[in-house]
């Protein structure tokens, strides 16, 4: 059950983040607030179902960081340093793309300047990020079956002749 929810939450994360990276109309402060609220509801649901140990909440980390990126101030070099230290699960390419797509919804917000984006790129240039922008929503985590040893010893097994397993010998 835990593995199923980890996979499901990864798919939610990948699809939502990919839409965020591809659609200019959703890259705003208000979308960041809405995302963060919805993610907190998912995390609360996991706690309520006692699935915290499943790793499902950790798969949402890139989406959480993207929501926080949309909500942070984006003006000074201190803001750039804060973004770089906060967004560890996002690649440089993803951070820059979100900042380029950021669209102010009201008159109190401003577009992200090119100088600020260059400052972010300069701060993140030593990162060794994978070259892809979008997440692979078809990624599958390996299924792990727990090993439960049998209480039956090999000495006590009797192989009936009707199975035609004469080639097996007890050692």
From TrEMBL:
Entries under InterPro entries matching the protein: Dilute_dom, Vascular_dev_regulator
Ranges for domain Dilute: 1-126
Pfam family, one: DIL
Domain of life: Eukaryota
Molecular function (Gene Ontology), one example: GTPase binding
Protein name from the UniProt record: MYO5B protein
Organism placement in taxonomy: Eukaryota, Metazoa, Chordata, Craniata, Vertebrata
């Amino acid at each position: 059950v835990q593995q199923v929810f980890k996979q499901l939450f990864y798919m939610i994360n990948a699809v939502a983040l990919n839409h965020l990276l591809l659609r200019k109309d959703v890259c705003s402060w208000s979308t960041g607030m809405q995302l963060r609220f919805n993610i907190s509801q998912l995390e609360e649901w996991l706690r309520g179902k006692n699935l915290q140990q499943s790793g499902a909440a950790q798969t949402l980390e890139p989406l959480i960081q993207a929501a926080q990126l949309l909500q942070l101030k984006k003006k000074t070099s201190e803001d750039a340093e804060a973004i770089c230290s906060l967004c560890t699960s996002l690649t440089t390419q993803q951070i820059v793309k979100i900042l380029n797509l950021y669209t102010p919804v009201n008159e109190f917000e401003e577009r992200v300047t090119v100088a600020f984006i260059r400052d972010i790129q300069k701060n993140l240039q030593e990162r060794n990020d994978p070259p892809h922008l979008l997440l692979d929503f078809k990624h599958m985590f390996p299924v792990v079956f727990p090993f439960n040893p049998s209480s039956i010893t090999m000495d006590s097994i009797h192989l009936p002749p009707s199975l035609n397993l004469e080639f097996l010998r007890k050692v």
